[in-house]
């Protein structure tokens, strides 16, 4: 079906080329096996950015991305972003950032698609039903680490551009890519790279598009906010070596007991953050926000079933009970305790007193929290709580990630264009949602570079990011590719003066 969309007329554009959506969508349908194979190829690379032993795989992953974009005729660079310092002082090369450009027509808008191809750790023994690095299609669900976060969405964007090329159709906008390999560990080195290229690669970029998140339900969504994240290490050091708990237990003051004691003062069982000052900075939920949340269809029982939880922290009785749940998912800070390095965690019954233990915990950030302030509040508080224990052990608190929250204006034409693209592909209106997770670079694009951003997820609500059995639905992957094709066309209709 060739037709011009309604928003196109509303926006007052006078000359256009007909948008050959039907041909493009058919092309996508007929190439879906190739797309799945491309995803299989990428998932097979264990590009875990948190594991220094996997750094060679991560370098290989970035090369693969660059190679794919080069084969499509893009102007591709692998940008060296330097090294990272490891906790033991060693230096390790960061994965290069891939930049690419398709089209250079100054009469068109230029969009820049940001994505990442690093993944969280995954082992079959963690409870995966399949090998996490061997993409496995079970009933249209493509299981594999990084399938949804964020390899399939990055590929879908690449395939969207490729489809225009394959049909010899002119891209309606210039498309740039910036693909990194450190997102899962705080986007180390990316801020500096972006700033360094502000007047070169990014100078003509009008809009940033990010597809590194998921829908809330089976309804497609556009995302207008993410939480930030402050990630802490709290290290308690005691005796000079691990000790036998039978021989020494009762005489030494155990680092693990100190650590658990201070961790227990971070948050109450009912979810109240106990660090003084943290909650004071949180912007109150406005009536407008309340109404937006109320309008979203969200089935709490379904949500509970999906994650296998019998009860949630917040679920009031009544017809608006989902508002509280959404607000605490997107709009309020929370503390999560992720693990303790140095603790015995293997199966079995080792009777050890660990000499040094390091807790990893994070606090999700929302407007108007400031990571620098949170760092001080948490560090001062934990030291004061620790001091009251009168322990001879030592405590060191370090903040290793300090990512700010991000919030967009849903009235921006980027969102109108997004709604039109969703309507075309899915024949329904999208949910306007926020995201509880963090995309560290979003604020840099917005505040430092002055770019408008839209987040356009294609992942399913139950994809299991960071978890066992992460998957991407074939449906989302393929229809998502069509969505991106349609979106490029919609963005081309935005008046050139709008930023
Ligand atoms: C759902 C998130 C925004 C996805 C993102 N790739 C991510 O996992 N970020 C790190 C985080 O801890 O939120």
UniProtKB/TrEMBL annotation:
Superkingdom: Eukaryota
InterPro entries in the record: ArgE/DapE_CS (IPR001261), Cyt/Met_Dipeptidase (IPR051458), Peptidase_M20 (IPR002933), Peptidase_M20_dimer (IPR011650)
Keyword terms: Hydrolase, Metal-binding, Protease, Signal
Domain annotation Peptidase M20 dimerisation: ranges: 225-386
Residues in the signal sequence: 1-18
GO biological process, one term: proteolysis
One GO cellular component term noted in the UniProt record for this chain: cytosol
GO molecular function: dipeptidase activity; metal ion binding
UniProt cross-references to PANTHER family, sorted A to Z: BETA-ALA-HIS DIPEPTIDASE (PTHR43270:SF1)
Similarity comment: Belongs to the peptidase M20A family.
Listed name of the protein: Cytosolic non-specific dipeptidase-like
Chain's gene name: cndp1
